[in-house]
Amino acid sequence: MTGVSLSSADLDPRRRRILFRCWHRGIREMDLVFGQFAEKEIATLSETELDEFETVMAEEDNDLVRWIMGTWPVPERFQTPMFERLAAYKPDFEYPADALPRNA
């Protein structure tokens, strides 16, 4: 998935803003994680869950990618069901062997 496929027409302004921000993070890996999560979950998140999601979104992308990929431990404040749900959307960032450039 490379962009928004969910129509935001039926979403309230807050959810539309969050959905847009999820797909425009600045680091492509985080666009994919946050964007895919929002595509599936944004319409059903409670206000409390939206608050928590926005708190996570406020963190630096470089830190988030390390936490989600497991290269850094997740800070205790983010060891929550919401962060676990978000981290479950991590796409496969590895290239298939047949897609790598071949040495001539």
Structure description:
With 104 residues, the protein is mostly helical. It has one domain: DNA polymerase, domain 1 (Orthogonal Bundle). The chain has 5 helices and no strands. It has helices at residues 13-23, 28-41, 47-57, 61-69, 81-87. The radius of gyration is 15 Å and the shape is globular. The mean pLDDT is 85.
Any key phrases for this structure?
SDH_sf, FAD assembly factor SdhE, mainly alpha, globular, DNA polymerase, domain 1, chaperone, 104 residues, SDH
What order do the helices and strands come in, and which of them pair?
Blueprint: H1 13-23, H2 28-41, H3 47-57, H4 61-69, H5 81-87
Helix pairs in contact: 1-2
Protein name: FAD assembly factor SdhE
Keywords: Chaperone
Family: Belongs to the SdhE FAD assembly factor family.
Summarize the structure.
The protein is an all-alpha fold.
Structural class: mainly alpha
The poorly predicted ranges are none
Output mean pLDDT. 85
CATH architecture: Orthogonal Bundle
Q: Which CATH class?
A: Mainly Alpha
Report helical residue fraction. 40-55%
Count all strands and give the number: 0
Strand content: under 5%
Q: How many helix segments?
A: 5
Q: Under CATH, the topology is which?
A: DNA polymerase, domain 1
- Cα-atom radius of gyration: 15 Å
Inertia-based shape: globular
SSE string, helices as H and strands as E:
HHHHH
> How far is the first residue's CA from the last residue's CA?
31 Å
